[in-house]
């Protein structure tokens, strides 16, 4: 009888131990398999089992891309991760993100971040295309001196100090009283100060940063207010197509029709399969002529 009770107790202990192992956290995860990486990175399935997991930083894991993936797969400056570490560990400070030298190969680079490579005199801005994939838009040195960020929070802190939080995790104290949530700030990367701001209002040019219409560019038409739910913004692109999205996906990039940043090659225009075919045929006809 005692032996039966001992076996029964051992089974209960093993089950309880297995249950604890499955629910208890054992520190932050440090690895990422290629199959679980975000589709926006555009990694091939046959390139290996593992990829670089983004470090903790100003952008969320699913909304960022690590520096190693950019140098190895986007810019083709390295064949292996070891070469990426060599490039980033150089004392000359080869790679700068938003004007600051970054040596962490897993540093998360997100939307609107500016990557500068002094030795090659190249500057890139991280954007989305209309398929939701990360692209590096080559920009001129004058445009690489600033970046656009979106205001995500506006609060009053201790000692009644007003402050705002931006999409790249910046905290700015004593902002302009006219700046509100969902507005866009133009920040000088050398000083970190706000140079100008854009209101989220009808008539301004916006860039979609999430949802089914990610990567599209158009003019804000009007805003539907839904109390207790998400406000819906209606947008019209340069081809005359209308679409709508949540206000959280709206990123104002210009006053009126003029954009403050260089747009991707597709200009933020979504084309159907038929429209793409017609555009190719038109290009072929112009070449023959």
Automatic annotation (TrEMBL):
* Domain (Small ribosomal subunit protein eS4 C-terminal) ranges: 237-283
Pfam families registered for this protein in UniProt: 40S_S4_C, Ribosomal_S4e, RS4NT
| HAMAP family per the UniProt record, alphabetical | Ribosomal_eS4
Q: Where is the Small ribosomal subunit protein eS4 N-terminal domain?
A: 26-62
Signal sequence interval, chain numbering: 1-25
Molecular functions per Gene Ontology: RNA binding; rRNA binding; structural constituent of ribosome
The domain of life is Eukaryota
Q: Which GO terms describe its cellular component?
A: cytosolic small ribosomal subunit
Taking every annotated instance into account, which residue ranges of this chain make up the domain Small ribosomal subunit protein eS4 central region? 120-194
Keyword Ribosomal protein among record annotations:
yes
Indicate what this protein is called per its UniProt record: 40S ribosomal protein S4
Please state which protein family the record places this protein in: Belongs to the eukaryotic ribosomal protein eS4 family.
**Entry's Gene Ontology BP terms:** translation
Q: Which UniProt keywords apply?
A: Ribonucleoprotein, Ribosomal protein, RNA-binding, rRNA-binding, Signal
Q: Which organism is it from?
A: Paramecium tetraurelia
- PROSITE patterns, per database record: S4
């Amino acid at each position: 009888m005692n032996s039966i009770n001992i076996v029964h107790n051992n089974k209960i202990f093993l089950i309880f131990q297995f249950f604890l192992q499955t629910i208890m956290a054992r520190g932050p995860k440090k690895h990422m398999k290629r199959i679980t990486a975000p589709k926006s990175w555009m990694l091939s399935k046959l390139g290996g089992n593992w990829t670089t997991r983004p470090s903790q930083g100003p952008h969320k894991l699913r909304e960022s891309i690590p520096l190693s993936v950019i140098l190895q797969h986007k810019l083709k400056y390295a064949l292996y991760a070891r070469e990426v570490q060599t490039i980033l560990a150089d004392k000359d400070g080869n790679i700068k993100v938003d004007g600051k030298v970054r040596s962490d190969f897993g540093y998360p680079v997100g939307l609107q971040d500016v990557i500068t490579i002094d030795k090659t005199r190249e500057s890139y801005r991280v954007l989305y295309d209309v398929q939701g994939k990360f692209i590096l838009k080559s920009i001129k040195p004058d445009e690489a001196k600033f970046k656009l960020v979106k205001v995500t929070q506006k609060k009053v802190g201790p000692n009644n100090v007003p402050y705002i939080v931006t999409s790249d995790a910046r905290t700015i104290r004593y902002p302009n009283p006219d700046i509100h949530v969902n507005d866009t700030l133009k920040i000088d990367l050398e000083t970190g100060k706000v140079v100008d701001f854009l209101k989220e209002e009808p008539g301004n040019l916006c860039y979609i940063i999430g949802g089914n219409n990610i990567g599209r560019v158009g003019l804000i038409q009007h805003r539907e207010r839904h109390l207790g739910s998400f406000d819906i913004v209606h947008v019209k692109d340069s081809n005359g197509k209308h679409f709508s999205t949540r206000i959280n996906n709206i990123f104002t990039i210009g006053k009126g029709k003029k954009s403050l940043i260089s747009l991707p090659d597709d200009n933020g225009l979504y084309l159907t399969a038929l429209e793409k075919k017609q555009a190719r045929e038109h290009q072929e006809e112009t070449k023959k002529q």
